[in-house]
Amino acid sequence: MDTIKVGVLGATGAAGQRFVQLLDGHPWFEISALAASNSSAGNSYADACAWRVSSDMPAAVRDLEVLPVEPGFKADIVFSALPSSVAGPVEEAFAEAGYIVCSNASSHRMDSDVPLIIPEVNPQHLSLIPHQQRRRGWDKGYIIANPNCSTIHLVLALKPVQDAFGIERVMVTTMQALSGAGYPGVSSLDIVDNVVPYIGGEEEKVETEPLKLLGRFDGEGIEFADITISAQANRVATIDGHLEAVSVDLAQQAPIEDVMAALGEFRAEPQELGLPSAPERPIVVRPEPDRPQPRLDRMAERGMAAVVGRVRECPVFDVKFAVLGHNTIRGAAGASILNAELLVAKGYLGDWSTAADDKVRLSRALAAEMIQHARERAPEEVCGIVAGENGHFSRVYAARNVAENPSVTYEMDPQEQLRIFKEIDERSWDVAGIYHSHPASPAHPSPTDMRLAFYPSVVYFIVSLMQPDRPVVRAFRLDQERNNTEELELAILD
Length: 494
Ligand SMILES: NC(=O)c1ccc[n+]([C@@H]2O[C@H](COP(=O)([O-])OP(=O)(O)OC[C@H]3O[C@@H](n4cnc5c(N)ncnc54)[C@H](OP(=O)(O)O)[C@@H]3O)[C@@H](O)[C@H]2O)c1
Known about the structure:
The protein is α/β, with parallel strands linked by helices. The chain has 15 helices and 21 strands. The strands form four sheets. A seven-stranded mixed beta sheet has the order 15-21-20-19-18-16-17. A six-stranded parallel beta sheet has the order 3-2-1-4-5-6, sandwiched between helices. The protein has a six-stranded mixed beta sheet with strand order 10-7-11-14-13-12.
């Protein structure tokens, strides 16, 4: 695949520099624009940026001119590392101008139509994107956000626990590193020989964002999880890595070994999809009594893991543990980049038929609908249309087969076809696929199928019931004019 051009807003700051570092040599993304405040704009990145990341500033960006944070530069995706005091309207302006905005800032995180995403936790919330675009009148651009740098690691650790045992209440005390306050951040005279038991706005974020992340997409919006969280945030004198002490009241009692197993075995969609920034183990469980520690553990899985340790019984709630994560990698830039990789892999960049690895991705539910339709009418062939929205297949429309001999071919009822096309159009979706069944033959296009292939840009799905207990769905690109049949790799996703 061609590399995708990306821009970074707030590129000179603590989170912005991490973006620049992590995007250097990225297999899918290439930095084409860097932007910051008016005091940096117009200078080269090397001159504008006091580089404070341990590796050298990537050579490819040194001479890039820093731009003001206004739409107009060549990029498909824009990563925002702007202070939340400025990010809100700027991110909206970019989305309105057609850019995909992956934001670190808190400005839009809790907007009801903005997906707040941790790819391992709630990838299905991306379905909010078309709602957001319709509501705001944006045809191409949209905003997705990653959570606060303490929320991410907490929720990564809570997700498998919630799935296995349910969660009713959580108490969390954070010990947050200095880089979380940006640069130059907290004055040395305030933090050396000290702990500051207050970080403005932080406790509210940690108490509310997990409820959205662990909530359920109900087809229109997010129904928040019914969990009560109490958070206390402290600034401590570490440089990177937020450590959190967590106690959890479970809905269903569980032995500590079972909780540890749920944490250690946790894998999710980014691992299955093999996203470039996905950690192999999203949760690393340390058995030692004195781990995790920021200095020793923050770079676990290249800084992309939540490191959990000291899992034990809690005399007040049920279970308690410590969790640590790198605040500018998994807590900021790495999180946004992983979100963008998920968008690409799931086809949210506009081309619904093929994603980053040229696979056609279809949800198991939609495949099951096609198979169910085929079984209901067998030995006749069935047919229908698959709608797509923003790069993914969203709905199957079954149509009536009015062919004279429906056991050997299909012909969609023209009136029904018109009605389906109209509905797809009204919803601002695309006609993304056409399916039909082969009740007794393999899932391979026949000469008749080629004759009926009037739409070279859609995906043709064929459902075979040749082995009734083992239905097969395959995907093809059929170009009638060039008499060309291309099988597409089909990934069925849960
Ligand atoms: N640091 C973390 O661990 C972390 C973690 C998660 C999320 N975040 C979020 O990421 C965002 C950035 O945080 P940070 O820690 O990187 O802050 P930072 O170090 O203060 O950097 C702020 C960046 O925004 C630019 N900027 C400031 N005011 C601007 C304006 N009026 N117009 C345009 N650009 C402006 C700055 O450019 P100049 O250099 O030109 O001033 C700089 O590039 C915040 O929303 C923060 O909450 C940070």
